[in-house]
Amino acid sequence: MTDITKIPLDNIKVSVANNGLATVTLARSEARNALDESMIDQLVRLFYGIGKTKDVTAVLMTAEGPTFCAGLDLKEHYYKDRSSIDFMQVCRGWHEAFNNMQFSGKPIVAALRGAVVGGGLELASAAHIRVADSTTYFALPEGQRGIFTGGGATVRVADMVGKSRMIDMMLTGRIYQGQEAMDVGLCQYLVGEGESETKAFELANKVAENLPLTNMAITLGIEHSQNMSSNDAYFSEAFIAGIVNTQPDARDRLAAFANKTAKKTKPED
Ligand code: 1HE
What we know:
about 270 residues; three-stranded mixed beta sheet; six-stranded mixed beta sheet; alpha/beta; 2-enoyl-CoA Hydratase, Chain A, domain 1; single chain; Lyase 2-enoyl-coa Hydratase, Chain  A, domain 2; globular; 2 domains; binds 3-methylmercaptopropionate-CoA (MMPA-CoA)
């Protein structure tokens, strides 16, 4: 079994609590957590390990400093003066890292603050739940920087906000924040300044209580069904439910409902 705390990390920290909640922290605040090649390689390995280990049930993703993530390390990109083929390989790394996040089977709750821009938004969009605070703002400044997204935004951000909004964000540098960011689908929770980590922690702990197979089905099954015809998606749903809804570990939870000891699904609960 992979011990993810043994994976060599630099500018990223990880810890695992007794209930299986892993906290992954971007720790490069002096560069506003901009992602260089080394950090992307680390994210590839870390989330591959998180997927494989039974020790982790859910992930809280957070960041040090006032900014969640300023995206691609623009200075590294400038000084390396990469060729087209070099940058295509860089993008393959970003795609692998964020796919390992989205499809590890472990739910990720991201605690956002300050700038969530460019590749920072691509990173956040690979999380399953995004919690913003009143300082959080979202943008795709690539258009103004003379570059293009390369970490999956054309799929994940377009999926969240729709292609017209994404094109507007990239052409004009439009910034979304607060209730408007919620309304367009960039985040699912909005809390007061400095409260996103507390809220994300609460949600991640709640998610960690779900059965692992159920969390895997939720985070993977819904995503994959979007790319299928309705008939294929119904078949896939039935197949997933056939496995998940009959898992032995669910028996206790179903028994609790049958014998009236389970919580009801009501607003006050
Ligand atoms: C950086 C980066 C970076 C900051 N790469 N070093 N991303 C962007 O276009 C965002 C670029 N960054 C900014 O607009 C601002 O830095 C922030 C709004 C994020 C933060 O502002 P602020 O005033 O809090 O900090 P700062 O003084 O601008 O930055 C602090 C340091 O971080 C400074 O370095 P220093 O050595 O002068 O102290 C900055 O240079 C450094 N820093 N952001 C490198 N991004 C796979 S394709 C993805 C495409 C993209 O992501 S495009 C990038 C979009």
